[in-house]
Queue: 4 jobs
Job 1
Amino acid sequence: MFLKGARCFSAKCPIEKNGGTPPGVHGSRSGFRQSAFAKQLREKQKTKRLYSLSETQFKNYFTKAKKEKGIVGEVLLRFLEMRLDNCVYRLGLVPSRLSARQMISHGYVLVNNKKVTIPSFMVGLGDQISLSEKALKMEKNKYALAKKEKPPSWLERKGFLGRVVSLPERDQMPIEINESLIVEYYSR
């Protein structure tokens, strides 16, 4: 089962089948070098799509990160990781971020035993995240909970209850994003 945003590893994947060459007429262009702007834009778009954000939301997070103390790129990633939809996904309560967004907007996710219907809700230190009784009966959630994947070290999970133990540091974020390219893109 391949989800949007997840890398394709099957033998049928066009990129894997052709030895890393992208599909299409211009996919096999040799000697093609991307400009610095193209690399920055691609990294920003990749991050934006990974977290399922609109352009306005992403830019607002960047503006907010610039105002905070610390390294802008790391603060931006911390904001993105502390979103409720991402925390529900990272805890392994649901199979994908899009599924987490849907569960939240339908009212199946509780933060400190209160229903929250906003996927962009910023989770705080010590907050407890859980699924409602109705959500626990859903087949896809039973499957996700049965996988027993270990969440990142800044999150803690016991059964269907999760808790934010600490703020995520850059080395605790299991994502392949070059945040310096995003900062360079918005600094032009």
Note: The two ends are 40 Å apart (CA to CA).
Job 2
Amino acid sequence: MPAPDSSLIGKVARQLTQAPAYAEAAGARGSLLSVAASSYGWKSEDDEHTQPTGFDPEAARLFEAVVEGAFLVANADGDFDVTEQAAFQHVVVSACAGRVAARQVSALLADLQDQLDEDGMQKRIQMVARAITREEHAREVLRVSSLLAYVSGGVSTVEREVLDKLAAEFKLTNAAVAQAIDDAAHALIE
């Protein structure tokens, strides 16, 4: 894959910090990814330590599920090369505005790769769906995944298939996927 356009990466990162249009009316403070990053960033590297005040394991779980959903879409073609990985990591770290360190995202991506290699795509899709219990969170996984797919040239046919499988596990229709892809495309044109 050729190196992604840095202006596109910046646009994607900015979009990932913002609440989706359907959540703005409810007074959302930002995207699920950026809000949940605050708790995820508090995770200690040494599980022996007590978590600091303010750590929310539910928010950390949501952060991991959102990232894993996008990671699975990025791996749809079976080739998540070094350039794609670097762009993915950069966008996630940028979208989290310093709340999550690059080393944490790198470690998470390595764990996700191990889980994907061990379990396979379908089981990982099911695991993401198990972690996402609210419809607006499911829609956010689709939106974030669609935005990150644009970093590598847009949503390909195989990426769309993974998005459709995620939506099915979330009990959403393919129309929700089409909406997420359309919203991502329009957001990046602005």
Note: Confidence is low (pLDDT under 50) at residues 43-51.
Job 3
Amino acid sequence: MLELTFEVRAADLDESQRPAEPPSGYVERLAREKAQALGSAAEVFVLAADTSVVIDGDVLGKPGDDPEKGAEMLRRLSGRTHQVLTGVAVAHQAQTRSVVVSTEVEMRRLSDGEIRWYVASGEGHDKAGGYAVQGRAGAFVTALRGSPTNVIGLPLAETAALLESAGFALPWSPR
């Protein structure tokens, strides 16, 4: 959306949540570790993020290709409000800055048929919490409180502010 040129690289990290680690600390730690693992050159800006869906204090990861895991996640979210937390980090010149963005998502009560239909679509298998609000699951979400782009992917306003604070020239920055 910001028309930036970038290269996508993956960091090879253990993404396990540590015992007693709160969800917000977990996503921020992962974002920082990813940025630091990939940010060795001083002139490079490395942007990294990690998103989790949280309900009842539990982090819901990605269900993968396990349809029962995906269905169980949707059953937990059905008729309830949950949080989408994203840790965003920027590493540049041996400094790492980070922020955690939280959005509340209200999902209407889902029938077993809706859950089966959605899981069978495969759309949510690689998404935190097992759903994608920008796709078919948009029919299930009744309210968002906070950053909508956080739920879709990367929290855009907060990411732009973090990049700018690290000295990255955004399209509107003075040259």
Note: Helices lie at 23-38, 67-77, 112-121, 148-152, 156-165.
Job 4
Amino acid sequence: MNTQIFESKTEMGAAAAAAGATYLKSTTGENGSAAIIVATGASQFEMLDSLRAQDLDWPVITGFHLDEYIGMSIRHGASFRKYLWERFVSRVPLPMKAFHFLSGETDAQTECDRVGDLISQTAIDVAFVGIGENGHLAFNDPPADFETTVPYLVVDLDDDCRKQQLGEGWFPDFESVPKQAISMSIQQIMKSRTIICTVPDERKANAVKNALQGAVTPEVPASILQTHPDCHMFLDTGSASRL
């Protein structure tokens, strides 16, 4: 695992986006197309700002949505579909080949099956992900299912995860935070050829330490990244403070 530490979130995000873009340029040059996974949340603001400005052949790039709350309207301020549309998909210089959003407003298992079928037919070149305060990867909270091979699954969100969403300002109170979500599975994320993991802020320092230096265990879902052959960690001084 390659780990880099930066003084600011802006530097961190720019470096993560540039690294991902390097892989994508190589892939589109060789294969004529590429596919990515895109995460959301406050940790991805700077990376996505930089990624959409990269000189990439966007019309041959397909994107997949990492996770979404169940029962979440696209009009809600915490909707990840809304986030991705406003912060990324609608703002790349040219339209992408496709972006497969997850809907939280339809039957959850049907939606898992629908997008799961699409991603099962696609080789993912770069996954842009983060790590949660509880060590989660996507919405796979501890103890995560390291074994399931289904691409997407319905998951229960633990209290620590829900408190993080509240603390980041997405919801007015704890009771408003959904208790379930659709999440890409651990095994599906790990199929990605390259993983770019961007994790800022001191509030995630303990999760980063456990994920990078602790045992590989479902109790720290992101620890599975230690076993990936091409994973790159981008941290700021806060998130790296306990390493």
Note: The CA atoms of residues 152 and 184 lie 4 Å apart.
